[in-house]
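User: Sequence recovery, please. Input:
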């Protein structure tokens, strides 16, 4: 009985760890996409350090809209300055 409980506890712990690792990998992809977009718009990437998740989503939505140029740059700078 103790072995079964220990095995279940280990399985649960590994599942939580794997989920956390997957979430971090996905977050890293988001940051990489955001960094590339900022570089493309000629915006310093150090601005990323203070962004909230909501701001990141808003900026990536602009990137997904395929609108590039001064309009996109102005929108992104507005989001960063909030």
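Assistant: Recovered sequence (82 residues):
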């Amino acid at each position: 009985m103790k072995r079964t409980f220990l095995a279940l506890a280990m399985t649960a712990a590994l599942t939580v760890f794997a989920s956390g690792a997957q979430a971090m990998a996905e977050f890293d992809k988001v940051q990489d996409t955001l960094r590339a977009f900022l570089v493309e718009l000629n915006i310093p990437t150090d601005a990323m350090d203070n962004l909230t998740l909501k701001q990141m989503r808003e900026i990536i939505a602009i990137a997904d809209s395929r609108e590039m140029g001064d309009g996109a740059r102005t929108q992104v700078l507005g989001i960063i300055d909030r």
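The first helix runs from residue 2 to 40.
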